[in-house]
Amino acid sequence: MRQLLNGWDERRILPSRRLLAGSLLAIFAVDVFLWATAPPLILDGLTDWAAHAATVILMLGVIGEVSATFAAGALAGGVLIDLDHIPQYLGTEFLTEGTPRPYTHSLLTVILLGLAAWRSRGELHVFLAGASIGLVSHLIRDMAEPGQNGGVALLWPLSDWGVTIPYVVYGAAVMLLFLGAWRRYAGASVGSAEAAVRAVAATAASVEEGTGE
Ligand SMILES: [Zn+2]
Fold it and tell me: Ligand 1 mean position to 36 CA, how many Å?
């Protein structure tokens, strides 16, 4: 498992504290935005993608040092699955007939991706393993996404039922991921939940400063 996560890449990556704090803020900022407004489709899609990417970053922070290939796979799996919405935007329902989201938003895709990862070798194996984990994080967020309560037909093609989870469950999971990832830095500086809260506040303040003018 360790070898799988590290891959064969010399470059190891781990989200910095600033990136962890920024990701946490980005998720909640996007979700408040999605709740409070009904943005046009393109804006909805772009902000939601940012929140999906931020969720993957927090998850990578908990996993620990991974290769760039694994991280790239996780980000790709966590974001690019939404390209399956394109046919719907173009007016064809062949991927969404009867389900709240395209059929490819289901456990079947996770299983197929996992099998592809298992059967492949080398960098592709590492990339696909990352993509499988990224896809799982995507589906979890989609089940809780504000304003999108149709859920995810996880069991398609066995069932079209849209599975949802309360937002508070996702929000708590995101907080736990953040604190879990943050613990890695405990001892590096002040290193505590208190320091984590201060970092989030500081990042929020610098974001506000940047957009205040
Ligand atoms: Zn999605």
Answer: 20
